[in-house]
Amino acid sequence: MPCAICGDTGWKTIEIDGVSRVTRCECWQRAAVDRFAREAEIPPRHEACDLDTFHDYNDSLSKAVGRARRFVREFPAVDRGLLFLGRPGLGKTHLAIACLKLAAHAKGMRGVFHDTRQLLRRIRQTYDPVTRRTETERDVVNAVIGTDLLVLDDVGAERATEWVEEMLHLIVNTRYNERRPTIFTTNYPVEAPPDAKHAETLLERVGFRMYSRLQEMCDFVELEGVDYRELGPNPTIEALSRLTKRGSQTHRALPGPTAKAQLKARFKSAEPAPDLKWPGGKAGS
């Protein structure tokens, strides 16, 4: 059914100080939002994420929202991206997607969201002749590298292999060299809490080269709080306050470090590898 205001032209007439002017109709704006969500590959569960609905119930989260707002306000004239880090269930993905929607869509820029593990899986599938995918490795990687604003979610969760490390370094390093900002999220801390079972750090998960580049290209924004997922969908501030007092069960059961990861990080920090060229070829195991 055609729009009753513009007749599906996408434009409507308004009057300002007695002068008729045309502006975009609300139906076009709604369609643009839907189109952006599809092109940005934002998961349906996170399509409603914005900064106004984020529960900043402590100082750490309030500072994170403030830093996100400053990034959005200054984008695209930003020198550094953002890395939201903290334990699961603090809203890191919510903040990253809110920044993507506001900074990219509101200012007419291109943006895309990728879960890091799913992105790597998608690249691997381009090597598989059985799937007969029409896109190539270069198609996928160039699209990720070339977008104006990229969100890489859950960095460090992927299983570390030589191919994974080289592919991520290629993407991140190329975007850094081309001055394209990137927003990352990770569950891994810069320094392991002394009283926690979880002792694996971001450096141990991503390796020296990647960690060094992240430090150079991003502001690290650390979030602290409780796992809101324990309270189900749409928790209230009161419920979050009660959970804060008793503590998150999930945060007490985080896994401990692996000796292999720690050894790898120490080795890489002692002898960093040279910059990566285009890897091509098959994915490593």
In brief, what are we looking at here?
By secondary structure, this protein is of the alpha/beta class. The chain has helices at 26-39, 59-74, 92-105, 116-125, 137-146, 162-177, 202-206, 208-217, 237-246, 249-252, 259-270, and strands at residues 11-16, 19-24, 81-85, 111-115, 149-153, 182-186, 218-222.
How large, in whole angstroms, is the Cα Rg?
21 Å
By secondary-structure content and strand pairing, the structural class works out as: alpha/beta
Question: In CATH's first tier, which class applies?
Answer: Alpha Beta
Dominant shape: globular
Q: Please tally the β strands and state the result.
A: 7
- CATH architecture classification name: 3-Layer(aba) Sandwich
Sheet with most strands: strand arrangement: 4-5-6-3-7
The CATH homologous superfamily is named P-loop containing nucleotide triphosphate hydrolases
Q: Outline the biggest β-sheet.
A: 5 strands, parallel
Topology as a string of helices (H) and strands (E): EEHHEHEHHEHEHHEHHH
> How many domain modules?
1
The N- to C-terminal Cα distance equals 52 Å
Enumerate the spans where pLDDT stays under 50 for 5 or more consecutive residues.
266-279, 281-285
